[in-house]
Amino acid sequence: MIVFSPIVSNRLKYIVEFTLGELTGQPVILTSDAAAFIAYDGLAINYSPAKLRDAELRITPHTLLFETGIHPQEIEISHWHELPVFFQGDGDIPFDVFAACFYLLSRYEEYLPHTKDLYGRYPHTASLSFKNGFLDKPLINYWLKNLAALLKSRFPDLVLKKPDFKFLPTYDIDEAFSFLYKGPVRNAGGFLRDLLTGSIGRCRLRMQVLTGSKPDPYDSFQHLHRLHERYHLDPLYFFLLATHIGKYDKNTDPSGKAMQALIRTHAAKNRTGIHPSWQSGDMASLLDEEKTLLETITGKPVRVSRQHYLRFTLPGGYRRLLEAGILEDHSMGYGMVNGFRASVAAPFYWYDLENETTTDLRLYPFCYMDANSFYELKQSPEAALEEMRHYYSTVKNVNGLLITLWHNTFLGTDPKFKGWKEVYEEFLKLVTNR
Q1: For tag attachment on the chain, is the N or C end more exposed, with fewer CB atoms within 10 Å?
Q2: CA 340, CA 132: separation in Å to the nearest integer?
Q3: What's the domain count of the chain?
Q4: In 299-329, alpha helices (H)
Q5: pTM
Q6: In terms of domains, do 97 and 239 share one?
Q7: From start to end of 60-202, where are the E strands?
Q8: Confidence of residue 102 (pLDDT cuts 50, 70, 90)
Q9: Is pLDDT at 347 greater than 80 in this prediction?
Q10: 86-124 b/e with 16+ CB inside 10 Å = b?
Q11: CA gap 106, 121 in Å, rounded
Q12: Which domain holds residue 244?
């Protein structure tokens, strides 16, 4: 496969590798030599305003991939195969699919001026996908599915890689236990708070747990292990290891024997990653400390992360991860609504727009989080299951990677989350066809 462009920029190299190389499985020659392009015997994509040969697929380029710096872009939505598109052109497809994919994958809009949300994050309400009604679709996967079909019709001998649908269940362990291993001071404070707010049932439950007559309501770990074995799943766990308790960091003390034993048990069976604390967002040194602590507990190098509260900004947040030796991050999603933040259901490398370079940090976008359904959307377990079914069918239709984010707190015995454990298993049955 050969792609001609009058200018071969870093942005173009990045997006051609992703769209044509990584997702289709084809080796790609990217050239600015028109003669070599014309003489090439095989699939040819002409990324220029003028036709160069008969057997080609021409895409009229937008200026985005030839620019440097970050500037507001004029975007108008039209449709192609009933899918929203932008950066329109008069080529063989009616828009610049490379530039549009780059705009969404690079999170270009997140570098532009915007008002942050309550937690200092980029708000979904500012995004192109939310404003134009495609946040619930992995739009890039759909575009590329249609592009692959068009290439196959033009070049019948083309052999394309057929991706397989994959499912990755992930879990954030913000609070491993509700009452156990919290220590007398925290439990006394919690008991008094519940008493003053009239939560007598919770006071009773706390005493029952602490005296051993009932299990801790957040302890869903053995239940999850059984589910994963039953449905043949390979999960990924993220542990919050803040050493000082704060407003947003309420984890069990990571220096305690029980917490460390829990982490080691998981690390022996499954992949584990660091869940950098809220406080690490304000004190960069804490990221290294928490990562080192997890490495010490597990005896394994830590290369995977997901930000607590999904708290990160571009480009500084990702640069900090790279500096800390993190090579895989799972924070690419929104903390108030479900959907595809980068409009894709596939992993991709982060492109640093300010430095105009492809980095070694690989991003794994999730599209569904239990907390969004419960706290933000106020959904019942049954309504949440319907939303999960939508994401499953949508991602399966493009043979993408479906990543979900759950918390152990939803899957235990806490009365607050009654019904959520059951719908989660229903979802696992659906995804695994069991």
Answers
A1: C
A2: 13
A3: 3
A4: 316-323
A5: 0.95
A6: no
A7: 78-80, 83-85, 166-173
A8: very high
A9: yes
A10: bbbbebebbbbbbbbbbbbbbbbbbbeeeeeeeeebbbb
A11: 16
A12: 166-178+216-432
